[in-house]
Amino acid sequence: MSASIRRLPAETASRIAAGEVIERPLSALKELVENALDAGARSIEVRVERALDAQFSVADDGVGIAADELELALERHATSKLASVEELDRLSTLGFRGEALPSIAAVSRMKLLSRPEAAEAAAFVRVEGGEVVEHGLAARSRGTTVEVRDLFHNTPARRKFLNSPTGELRAALRMVESYALARPGTGWRFVVDGRERFAWAPAGSHRERAAQVWGASHAEQLLEATLQRGGYAVSALLGLPEHARATREGQVLLVNGRWVQSPALSQALRHAYGNLLPTGRFPAAVVWLTVPPDRLDVNVHPTKREVRFADEDTVFSIVAAVCAQPLATIHPPFAVVGGPGTGATYPAASEASGVSTSPRVREGAGDISGGQMPLLLPVAGGDPRAELSSAFAAPSPVTVPAPVVREFADAAAPREGEIWQLHRTYILAPVRDGLVIVDQHAAHERILFEEALERLRGVRAASQGLLFPALVDLPRSRFELLLEVGEHLKQLGWDVMAMSPPTVVIRGVPGAFRIEQPGHLLEQVLDGIVERGPTAQDQLLERVAASHACHTAIRAGDPLSPEAMRRLVDRLFATSLPHGDPHGRPTFVRLELSDLHRRFGRS
Ligand code: ADP
Ligand code: MG
C-alpha cells in the first residue's frame, strides 16, 4: 500500500527550508552580517552570548527598514535587492534570495529593530517560531539591530548535531575577520559575553585592516600582489612559507566582496607557492578577487558559500601568476646571526661555519654529509656518553658488537655563541629580527632527505665499513624489497649483500650516522619505504630518501654541541624547502623581536 501524497503544513515546510539556509548558528550570524553590509553599514557591532548558543545580535548603521516593511522582510522570498531574474547576473549585493530572515525567524526567537534615516522613531517586531508576538516603537539611531535567541529551540534534532559552542565561536570570529578583510572601510566591534573582543576603526587599506586583525608585525611581513586586467582585479596579501598551515584555515578568499570557498582559487594560490611549500602545507593568504558579475555564479548553494566561475581557467592563471611574482623573491628566508667567529649571513653561512673546524672533512671524498657537516664524530669506547647510543638499541636478529659508537659531540671545544638547545629537542637561534626555534629532528630530516635525493641521482655516498660484518635475517617481504631497492641503498652508503634468503650481510653503513644496530636500522629503513604509500616507480626514490632521512636523522633527546647546532641550522636554510620536513611538518617557527617588545610594553 503506497502512502498518499499530502501537502506539508506551512510550518513544517518552512522549517525544512530553513534548515537549508541556516545549517548552524554560524550561518545565521553570517546572514545577519551580510545584510548589514548590504544595507551600506559603515559600522557593525556583533554581540554573542555563550558562544552563540544563547543569543547573538548584529547592529548596523545602514539604511534601515521602514516600519511598515518589517513584517514583509520576514516573509519568504521577500527582498529589496532583486527585482527581476536578469538582475541575478549583475548582482552587487551579498543577499538576493530573501530567505535568511524568515529562515532564522522560523527556528528561533527573533527581534528585528530598525530605523531608516527619515523615520522619527525606530520600530520593532518580535517573532517566535515564525509568528509575530509583539510589535511597537523604540528608541534607536539610524540602522538595524537583529537579535536572535534560542536558535533551533524548536528543532531538537538539529540542535543535537551542532558543533561544540567554542568551535562555533571560533568559526564566528573567523567569519567576522573575513568580512572585515573584505570591507576594510567598515568599522567593526565584536563583543563576547559582554566583553569586547576587538574594535576596529574603518581602515584605509587592505594592509591596514590586516594589521588590525593579525597585529602590525605580522601584517608587515605579508607580501603584496595586485593586478587588473579586463574585468578582473586581483589583490592579495600572502603569508610567508613559514606561516603555512596543515589546513586551508589560513586562507581568506573574497570574491566580489563575498567570503567564499573556492577549490579553484585555493589551487591557484597553492600553485603560486610552488615548491616553497612541501606537500600537505597550505599557504596562509587573503585574496581579494573581482570578476565581472555575469561571470560569477553565486547561486550554487543555499548558504552562498560556494561560487562558480564561468572562466575558471582564466581565474586560475591570473591568480596563480600574480601571486607567484612577490613569492619569487623570498629565498632564502633570513640569515642566522651567529655567535663570535661564525659566519653571519646566508648564503655564506654554511661556508663560514662549516669550514673552520674541519676543512679536511669538507674536502673529504664522498662523505655523506656532503662535506658540509660532520655532525657525528667518533667517541672513544667506554665513554659514558656511549650510553646515549645504547639507549636506542633494540633487539636485532643478530647482535653485533657496536664497532664505532658515535654521538653528537665535537672534537673542537664548542665556541661561544648565541645558540641554545632546549629540552634536547629544539634549537634556539637568534636571527636578525628575532629568534627561530628549530625542531632538530625535523630539520635534520629535511637536510638528509635532500642530500639523499641528490645521492640517489648522482654520486654514490661513502660507506663506513663495519669491523665485524653483521649477519641479519630479514622478514621475507623485507628481503624481497631489499633486492628491489638494494642499488638505491648502495647509493646512500649501504654495503649490503644478499645471501640465501632471508639472510643478508651488512658490511658497511652510510657514513656519519649512528650505526650501533646496523641490522635494526636497515630493517627500519626498509619498513619506512613500504609505509610510504603506493609503489609508483617515480616516487620510489623519494620514498627511499624519506625513509633514510627519517631513520638516520638525529632525534629529540640527542644532545647537540653549539657548533653542531649552528651547522644544522645553516644547512637547513641552505636546503630548497627549509620550511617543512618530508612529511610536511614544520621544521621551525619564528618569534619576532618586535612582537616580544610589544608584549613587554616596549613599543
Ligand atoms: P536578502 O538579504 O536575500 O534580501 P533577507 O531575508 O536576508 O534576504 O532580508 C530580507 C530583506 O530585509 C532584505 O532584502 C532587506 O531589504 C531587509 N533587511 C534585512 N536586514 C537588513 C538590515 N540590516 N538593514 C536594512 N535592511 C535589511
Ligand atoms: Mg540577506
Task: Give an overview in words.
The chain has 603 residues and is an alpha+beta fold. 34% of the residues lie in helices and 22% in strands. The chain has 19 helices and 24 strands. Strands 5-4-3-6-2-1-7-8 form an 8-stranded mixed sheet, covered by helices on one side. Strands 9-10-13-11-12 form a 5-stranded mixed sheet. A 4-stranded antiparallel sheet has the order 18-19-20-24. Strand 19 and strand 20 form a beta hairpin. The longest helix has 18 residues, at 165-182. The radius of gyration is 31 Å and the shape is elongated. The termini are far apart. Adenosine-5'-diphosphate binds at residues 31, 35-36, 39, 60, 62-65, 73, 78-81, 95-101, 144.
Q: What's this entry about, in short?
A:
By secondary structure, the chain is an alpha+beta fold. Helix 16 crosses helix 17 (about 535-550).
Rg over CA atoms, rounded to whole Å, is 31 Å
Distance between the termini: 79 Å
Low-confidence blocks of residues: 332-416
> Share of helix among residues?
25-40%
**Sheet with the most strands?**
8 strands, mixed
Share of β-strand residues: 15-25%
> Which class best fits the helix and strand makeup?
alpha+beta
Shape: elongated
Number of helices: 19
Labels describing this entry:
single chain, 603 residues, alpha+beta, 8-stranded mixed sheet, 5-stranded mixed sheet, 22% strand, binds adenosine-5'-diphosphate, binds magnesium ion
Write the SSE topology.
Layout: H1 10-21, H2 25-38, E1 43-49, E2 55-60, H3 70-73, H4 100-106, E3 109-115, E4 122-128, E5 131-138, E6 143-149, H5 156-160, H6 165-182, E7 187-192, E8 195-200, H7 206-214, H8 216-221, E9 223-229, E10 232-238, E11 251-255, E12 258-260, H9 263-273, E13 285-290, E14 296-297, E15 308-309, H10 312-327, H11 348-355, H12 359-363, E16 377-378, H13 386-390, E17 406-407, E18 420-422, E19 426-431, E20 434-439, H14 440-457, E21 463-473, H15 476-491, E22 495-498, E23 503-510, H16 518-531, H17 537-552, H18 562-573, E24 588-592, H19 593-599
Parallel strand pairs: 1-7, 11-13
Antiparallel strand pairs: 1-2, 2-6, 3-4, 3-6, 4-5, 7-8, 9-10, 10-13, 11-12, 14-15, 16-17, 18-19, 19-20, 20-24, 21-23, 22-23
Helix pairs in contact: 1-4, 2-6, 6-7, 9-10, 11-18, 14-17, 14-18, 16-17
The structure holds adenosine-5'-diphosphate and magnesium ion.
